[in-house]
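Comment on the following before class.
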Amino acid sequence: MDLSNEKLKQQQDQYAEEAKDYIDRPKKTKSILKRANNSIQKNSSLSLVFSPVRLFIDMVRSYQSGEYRDIRRTTILKVIGALIYLVSPIDLIPDFILGFGFADDIAIILFVTKTIFEELTRYSDWQDEQQKARTQPLQSEDAY
């Protein structure tokens, strides 16, 4: 079970390459997002990485809808690649191996999170601003 940074980068690059087939195909990407969301909801062993995975899913949705484009294409490819890896039945460690099956999934998610941390933080901040804007009541000039 080789989960070295070199092996993780190799896996990230491989799946980011596969993600090129998804990035401009919203229907195909939507399927991966749904499967990734289902995966984190079903597997409590992934609780450590729920936040980044949810951010990954939201980031891809925002990117594909055109709402958020302040991100490099290579970053989106890494994110989609990580999600493809998460839902892929072919892993470094098969998911059915109790206790260890999700170790590689977690390692890949954390590795990608680390490599895109700055852009992920910017996206999270943008997402927070959007949420605040939606929940703040409109103030009219007559109120003053």
In short: The chain is about 65% helix and 0% strand.
